[in-house]
Design brief:
This protein is mainly alpha-helical. Helices cover about 55% and strands about 5% of the residues. α3 packs across α4.
Length: about 160
């Protein structure tokens, strides 16, 4: 006599229950990924808005001059005394001479101006946060005579 077939209904019900649990877990993961995608989209939108509102360097001085040379000229005048200057001291001196930094951090503005000047060989870093003029800058800032010529030493 042939054996009766085994009832697999119970096995199928167990497997279906496992698949529903797996589906719920995947749905939670999808929700989590969608929330992350929304967060990244908002961050991108925020960064784009922030970038369009960002003021270009350099900062406007009281005279209304918006050229990048204004901050650099002030720094040149300040550090051409052949002394070592700390970044906060330079920033304070630049502010004292009339630079308006607006909402920007003066130390950051001055730092990046100094970095640019360093690339051109005008200043050098003595130690962390301490700068000094190079001979090239000192040569450029020599006082001119009334005829417009730079005085030379008689040898």
């Amino acid at each position: 006599m042939p054996r009766p077939l085994r009832d697999i209904t119970r096995d199928l019900e167990i497997r279906l229950k496992e698949l529903r649990v797996k589906k719920d877990q995947l749905a939670e993961q999808i929700d989590s990924v969608e929330r992350l995608m929304d967060s990244f989209s908002l961050a991108i939108e925020h960064e784009r808005k922030r970038a369009t509102k960002q003021l270009p360097l350099p900062i406007q001085s009281e005279s209304g001059d918006q050229t990048s040379g204004n901050i650099v000229r002030l720094i040149r005048d300040i550090i051409s005394d052949q002394q070592e200057w700390s970044l906060p001291r330079i920033a304070e001196a630049v502010k004292t001479r009339g630079a308006n930094f607006g909402k920007k951090n003066p130390n950051r503005v001055v730092h990046f101006a100094l970095v640019g000047m360093k690339r051109h060989g005008l200043v050098q870093i003595v130690s962390t946060g301490v700068w000094k003029a190079t001979p090239k800058l000192l040569e450029q800032t020599k006082p001119e005579s009334k005829t417009g010529e730079t005085p030379t030493r008689n040898l």
